[in-house]
Queue: 2 jobs
Job 1
Amino acid sequence: MSSSIFGPVLSRRFGLSLGVDLVGEGAKKCNYDCLYCELPKAEKVSSIQNAKESSVIADDVKEALQRHTDIDFITLTANGEPTLYPKLFELATLINEFKGSKKLLILSNGSTICDAGVREALGLFDVVKLSLDSALAESFKKIDRPLGINPQKLIGCMKSFRGEYAKTLVLETLFVKGVNDSDEDIKALNDAYKEIRPDRIDLSTIDRPPAYKVERVEEERLRGIASMLDSSLKVSVASRKNENTKVRSFSKDEINYMLRNRPFSFFDIEALYNEESKKLFYSMLASGQIKEQEVAGTKFYWCC
Ligand code: SF4
């Protein structure tokens, strides 16, 4: 039987991470059929059948940790949706017994958050990342093509989970051009984010060849979307390598003004500031004029 481990991989948002696949080889096991999915299309399922035993996967993780001592995160993911793995609680319990200071992370599409058993298992993770691609029923159906799921119900359950879960909650929204990127979509998402109050919101778009013929949104538009969101939210837009974003020059007053209005992520600084402005920014940081907080591997900066 092959190992459940892949990586370590260097992720832009979560640092050095050891990937744990709960599904294994064969067709993907997912209850969504997202337009942007990079895995080949497969029949939707509501649970993962014939999965490996949790003790077998935990042994693979333990063995890999002995070889890769420098990783930041152990990331539970799947060739599909990891919360459909029926022994998630047992597996997270086993890994927590030996993981030491490494953080346990799960990347979920968020679809099972109304299930009390799943929420109990998610409570064992240091960081939970849930997807929320739309807060409007029509766009949600178009982009995620779910197995009978209503986004308003999901948003309510995500809010309840936030109330129960004191560790780090990250929401991710992936935008597809012409599908979930209208101003109406952004307004509804902003209301949902404010209700759920995650620690971080990741905005992204298609990065790898998708299963269907759909287009990514431009990075400028992603940044425009970020600027439309409530200024109290910590929003991260990860730059794509080689993306042609125009870097700019900012004075000390401009930097102060920007960071008083909303927190900026490390990726914003790297993508938008020219070399001179970066030097100024980091000198302000070193002298304590700018505050810094790391949220699940991504740094945010703001001024008071
Ligand atoms: S939730 Fe993930 S695995 Fe499932 S269809 Fe969407 S992108 Fe693919």
Job 2
Amino acid sequence: MGSPSGPTTAGPTSANAPDGAAPALGTVQFEGFSAWFGKITALHEIDLTIAPQSVTALIGPSGCGKSTLLRSMNRLNDRVPGAAHRGRLLLDGDDVFARTMDPSVLRQRVGMVFQRSTPFPRTVFDNVAYGPRLNGLARGTTLDHVVETALRRAALWEEVRDRLRESALTLSGGQQQRLCIARALANEPEVLLLDEPTSALDPSATQRIEELLYELRRDLTIVLVTHNLHQAARVSDRTVFLFDGRIVESNQTRALFTAPRDARTEAFITGRFG
Ligand SMILES: Nc1ncnc2c1ncn2[C@@H]1O[C@H](COP(=O)(O)OP(=O)(O)O)[C@@H](O)[C@H]1O
Ligand SMILES: [Mg+2]
């Protein structure tokens, strides 16, 4: 990203912003962020910066708060009765919970893909066109182009180019999951959240998604919850180990897996609990 020469056009998208400049687009910052469901404290005082143009993996035993951390980033927990939070959560310096932050706009900037692929029972085309249409992109060549671009970025175009008018539900599980990724990408998000996106898929479909995430991180912030430690090690740049709602360790993936600093991290990655 960014041009090595020519006029200085380095805006907020520059990954090498000079000191004092706005952070690169797609930067997420948690500052003393806690979250509750009724009396349950799901997250305790999280401090974490998630960098753009990288894959960050969230790992930890079931119930440790991975999904809550992920879902905070596009305010999906807002819909849960009894959900509350404290502390700050910033996207590119904007307060995610500010009154002026429209959750539907936020959810376009921060796309989400779930474990169970969730295509709408409509055509392949309509699934991907859904967001752009909501934004007023009606029909015609521009919409066609947006849909094709999103499907290409999701590495699905070649498989569905002749099936755009078929129901999305006729696609295989792996294709449906890539369709959900394409649907998110059609909104041109800054951040893509994925909650155990491959746990219902076979190994070859899983591999395709992993390769795709590795590719997409060139121009997106990717946050991946996975219970597959090999997957975290393969595709992520940084890994965050959560335990009991707290960050135990956050580091470059290679360092975290080869030289964990905390005994609990070591116990978890060597399979002694989880
Ligand atoms: N909708 C909810 N209502 C009540 N408690 C919840 C809800 N979602 C999560 N929790 C609780 O919050 C804690 C963290 O859950 P979660 O973030 O889903 O963990 P993980 O994704 O790591 O398995 C757990 O104690 C869980 O029971
Ligand atoms: Mg979860």
